[in-house]
Amino acid sequence: MRQGRFTVQKQAKSGIMRSLLSFLLILVMIAGADSFPSGRGSGPLTVTAEAASAPYMKITCIDLGSARSVYGESVLLESGGQFLLMDTGSKDPQNSVTAYLKKRGVRNLSLYISHFHEDHCDYAASIIKDSWFHVKRVYLANPDPVRKYLSSRYKQSRRKLYKSCKEYVDRYNGILSAARKKKIPVTSLRRGKTFTVGSVKAKVLWDQNTRGWGCFDPYDKDGVGFQNNSSLVTKFTLGKRSFLTCGDIEFSTERDLLASGTNLSADILKLNHHGMWTSNLASFVKAVNPCYCFYSYKNPSDSDYRRFGGSTETSSTLRRLAKQYNILGCRYNGTITYTVQYNTISVSAQRHIKKKSIKVKNLSNGKVRTQQLVFNDAQPLFLDKRMLFSGTKLVTGNAQDRTPAKSSWVKDSKGWRYRTASGKYLSGGWKTLGKNIYYFTVSGYRHEGWLKVKGKTYFLNRLGIRQTGWQMIDGKFYYFSTKNGAMLTGKTWIGGTIWPLRSDGSLDLSKKDAPDINITTSEHRHTTRK
Ligand SMILES: [Zn+2]
Ligand SMILES: [Zn+2]
C-alpha cells in the first residue's frame, strides 16, 4: 500500500482510528466511480481529497450506444490524470466516443490500437484530426504478420486473404499518416515493450501469432481470425492489481500464450474477441484467474449480447464463463468503470446491475469481512455459486489465492522446457513423462534430433521423444534398440533377418531392400501440451 501522501491516515495514532478510516475509504469506493476521486476531482471530504493524490487506475469500457452504424470496442484507461484510449470503435457518425471523452473533460490523451479491424480503429483518424484533442502519442499493433501476405504470389493464389491483409495494412498506414501530419510520435508495440500511463506500468506480452496464416485456422479463408490472433496482448499493473487486455485473440494465440509460460494472472480481464466463442478457452481464463471480466460488443446484429440467455454459441460462451466469473458487458450494462486504488477494486455500471454484500475471506491472513460487490443482474448462477463459496473464497483475489499451475511444457526462444507442478524445470539427462522418454540439458531444455551420450547414439524427434525401432531420418534408415533407444551399427540381427547397417548406423540399401516401417510415427502432433 503506497500511502506516503495519505496524511490523514498517517497521522492516525490508534489502530481503531486507522481501520475506521480504511472503512470510510472503502465506502467511498463502493459509492461508485462517478463519485470517486479521480485526480481532477475536489471532493468535499478531506478523506477523498487526500485519496485523490494516491495512485489509481480507472478502466472504462465505453458504451458505443445502440445505433447499428457504430460498433466495436473502446476502453479508456486513466491514471494520474493521464489517459490512454485503447481502440476507438468503428466509424461513428454519432461520435459516441468523442462525446464521452468531451463529457469527461478528456483533452490530452494517447491512443493504443490493438489490431487493424474496423471495429477497433476506424474512428482513430477522426480523433487525431479533431482539434479539441491533443493526442500525445499513438501506440500501434504490429502490422508485419499481415504485411507478409501482400506479395503478388498471394494476390493470385489467395485473393480473399490478400484483399483483407491489404485492408488491414491500409488502415495501419491511414492512422500513421494522420499522426505524422500532426507530428504525433508513434510507437510500434512489440512483445516485451513497456510504457507507463500515470502510475500504471504497461507491459506488452505478445504482439503476433507466430505460426503464419493457414497453419492453424483453415476455416479462416479471408484472414479475419489471423488478424485477430495478431492483436496486442498487454498487462497494465498498479500495485498488486492488474488488468489484462488481449484485443480479439482467438484460441490459437490463447494456446500459444499458455504454452509460452507467460504470467497471465490479472484481476480484471477484458474477455477476448468480445466474449465470443472463437476465444476465451476455459484454461485461458483460468490462467488469468480474474475477479472481474467485461466485454465490449462487436456488432448490433449480435442480438445475443443483450443477455446471457439465448441459444447462440456466443452467449453459451458467456453463460459458461458467467458461472465462474463476475462479468459485465457494455451492450447490456452500459458504460462500465473499474477503479483500482489501495489494491481495492470498485465497480460501477450504468444499468442492469445488482449490488450484493457478501462475506469474503482473505486467504493470506484468514480475515473475514463483508464487502459489497457489483454484479450483472442477468447472472443468477454466478451469484448463487459465489454466495455458496463466499465464506472460503477471497473474491477480490490476490497472488496467494491463485491456483497453482499444473505441470506443463513451456517454450521460449531457446526451446522447450518442462515445468513441474511445483514450478521446477526438469533438467540434466533422461526423464520419462507418461509413455515417452526425453533428454533435458543441464539448463532444462529438451533435446531434439541426434544425441550422443556415453558413447551411444540416440535420436529424439522434433517433439523430443526418444525413438526406438526402425526410423527414417533424412532419407536414410536407422535402427534404435527397443530396450534402451541406442542406435545399432554393423551387421545386426533384427526381427529374424540380418541387416547390413553401416558404421554410421545407416542401412546399406545397395545390399538389402528398405525395411517395412511406418514412418509417420515421428510426425504425430504434440498432445501433452496444454
Ligand atoms: Zn473486434
Ligand atoms: Zn478483430
Short description:
The protein is built from 15 helices and 27 strands. It is of the alpha+beta class. It has an eight-stranded mixed beta sheet with strand order 6-5-4-3-2-1-14-15. The chain has a seven-stranded mixed beta sheet with strand order 7-8-9-10-11-12-13. Strands 16-17 form a two-stranded antiparallel ribbon.
Assembly annotation: single chain
* Biggest pleated sheet: 8 strands, mixed
Helix count equals 15
Radius of gyration: 28 Å
Structural class: alpha+beta
- Which small compounds were modeled alongside the protein? zinc ion
Q: Shape from CA axes? A: elongated
What portion of the residues fall into strands of 2 or more residues? Answer: 25-35%
Helicity range: 10-25%
Low confidence ranges: 1-50, 303-314, 381-404, 519-530
Distance between the termini: 36 Å
The overall pLDDT average reads 79
Strand order of the largest sheet: 6-5-4-3-2-1-14-15
Number of strands: 27
